[in-house]
Amino acid sequence: MTVAVVRFGGSNCDRDAARALSYLGIENEVVWHEDGLSEDVMGVVLPGGFSYGDYLRAGAMAARSPIMREVREAADAGVPVLGICNGAQIGCESGLTPGAFTTNESARFQCEPVHLRVERADTPWTARYEAGDVLEIPIAHGEGRYEIREDRLAELEADDRVLFRYCTPEGEVAPSSNPNGSRGAVAGVLGERETVAVLMPHPERATLPSVGTTDGGGILRGFA
Amino acid sequence: MTAYTATVTVRLKRGVLDPEAETTRKALERLGFDLEELRAADRFEIDLDADSEEEAGERAEKMAERLLANPTIHDYSVEVEGR
């Protein structure tokens, strides 16, 4: 009964995620994608990195690898699934979550701390926060601009599926606080179930006190 | 079976920002070229054997739908030629 951190060829935040989960007392193991998920898996992290070298599109290849069928089955059975950064791109490419993450408005790789506003607190990922809380968590991506048709975004908003938005330190969603041009300043969204979520920022890099803010720990506690 | 080349062109939907194309456009302008707009697209040339041009096209279309294009942001077109 452990959380599986799925390692693809090119994942590079798998050990960070594992270490952050261990720090929180959440049992976990890094699982090579070809080995598949164990039947009693109690959670899945799709970690950050550059799976398959970002060939074709970030996350496109990993999203279509065999283990993702198992991840989808687990998600459909209610197992919590969290996609972080490249894992978020994989989540959207696989259809676990809506929309797509594509080239930043700046056309550059951006590695910097950002602020996120918690849009709702009644999900496993945000139960440790209040709606409206502002978290400081780093991003590190070249393809993090959330894209979705306007009418689909309106549906997501109506269904309360936007989990995090980029915001100012005061919690205001403004063009100046949107680091990559994401539509609706969306930084993280829910899948069809509240137990499935993806986000571009890195909560595992904001969990251990020795590396900076610990604002992200609450997100990973969604597995506890 | 006949040998065909199916060419799949994948481009961003109208209205989806393409920062790389925009950067390329600016670079061309810096070189002194005069242009209104620049659109970039990915082109995949797929050699395959099929019973008919239609079948070759259908197979390439499935490839586009399953992997080559992301329907959230892309449109695609398929052209088939004998090879």
Automatic annotation (TrEMBL), chain A:
Gene symbol of the encoding locus: purQ
The entry's keywords: ATP-binding, Cytoplasm, Glutamine amidotransferase, Hydrolase, Ligase, Nucleotide-binding, Purine biosynthesis
CDD domains, per the entry: GATase1_FGAR_AT (cd01740)
Location(s), subcellular: Cytoplasm
HAMAP family reported in the protein's UniProt record: PurQ
Pathway: Purine metabolism; IMP biosynthesis via de novo pathway; 5-amino-1-(5-phospho-D-ribosyl)imidazole from N(2)-formyl-N(1)-(5-phospho-D-ribosyl)glycinamide: step 1/2
EC numbers for this chain: 6.3.5.3, 3.5.1.2
Source organism of this protein record: Saliphagus infecundisoli
Catalyzed reactions per annotation: N(2)-formyl-N(1)-(5-phospho-beta-D-ribosyl)glycinamide + L-glutamine + ATP + H2O = 2-formamido-N(1)-(5-O-phospho-beta-D-ribosyl)acetamidine + L-glutamate + ADP + phosphate + H(+); L-glutamine + H2O = L-glutamate + NH4(+)
One GO BP: 'de novo' IMP biosynthetic process
Catalytic machinery residues: C85, H202, E204
One Pfam family named in its UniProt record: GATase_5
Protein's job: Part of the phosphoribosylformylglycinamidine synthase complex involved in the purines biosynthetic pathway. Catalyzes the ATP-dependent conversion of formylglycinamide ribonucleotide (FGAR) and glutamine to yield formylglycinamidine ribonucleotide (FGAM) and glutamate. The FGAM synthase complex is composed of three subunits. PurQ produces an ammonia molecule by converting glutamine to glutamate. PurL transfers the ammonia molecule to FGAR to form FGAM in an ATP-dependent manner.
Main location: cytoplasm
Protein name: Phosphoribosylformylglycinamidine synthase subunit PurQ
Recorded GO MF terms: ATP binding; glutaminase activity; phosphoribosylformylglycinamidine synthase activity
Phylogenetic placement of the source organism: Archaea, Methanobacteriati, Methanobacteriota, Stenosarchaea group, Halobacteria
Record's subunit section: Part of the FGAM synthase complex composed of 1 PurL, 1 PurQ and 2 PurS subunits.
Entry's Gene Ontology cellular component terms: cytoplasm
From TrEMBL, chain B:
InterPro entries referenced in this protein's UniProt entry, alphabetically: PurS (IPR003850), PurS-like_sf (IPR036604)
Compartment annotation: Cytoplasm
Enzyme class label: ligase
Alphabetically ordered keywords of this record: ATP-binding, Cytoplasm, Ligase, Nucleotide-binding, Purine biosynthesis
This protein's pathway: Purine metabolism; IMP biosynthesis via de novo pathway; 5-amino-1-(5-phospho-D-ribosyl)imidazole from N(2)-formyl-N(1)-(5-phospho-D-ribosyl)glycinamide: step 1/2
Main localization of the protein described in the UniProt heading: cytoplasm
Catalytic activity: N(2)-formyl-N(1)-(5-phospho-beta-D-ribosyl)glycinamide + L-glutamine + ATP + H2O = 2-formamido-N(1)-(5-O-phospho-beta-D-ribosyl)acetamidine + L-glutamate + ADP + phosphate + H(+)
GO MF: ATP binding; phosphoribosylformylglycinamidine synthase activity
EC number(s) recorded for this UniProt protein: 6.3.5.3
Pfam families per the UniProt record, alphabetical: PurS
Protein's GO biological process: 'de novo' IMP biosynthetic process
Source species, domain of life: Archaea
The keyword Nucleotide-binding appears for this protein: yes
Gene Ontology CC annotation, any one: cytoplasm
Assigned protein family: Belongs to the PurS family.
Quaternary structure and partners: Part of the FGAM synthase complex composed of 1 PurL, 1 PurQ and 2 PurS subunits.
Role description: Part of the phosphoribosylformylglycinamidine synthase complex involved in the purines biosynthetic pathway. Catalyzes the ATP-dependent conversion of formylglycinamide ribonucleotide (FGAR) and glutamine to yield formylglycinamidine ribonucleotide (FGAM) and glutamate. The FGAM synthase complex is composed of three subunits. PurQ produces an ammonia molecule by converting glutamine to glutamate. PurL transfers the ammonia molecule to FGAR to form FGAM in an ATP-dependent manner.
Record-given protein name: Phosphoribosylformylglycinamidine synthase subunit PurS
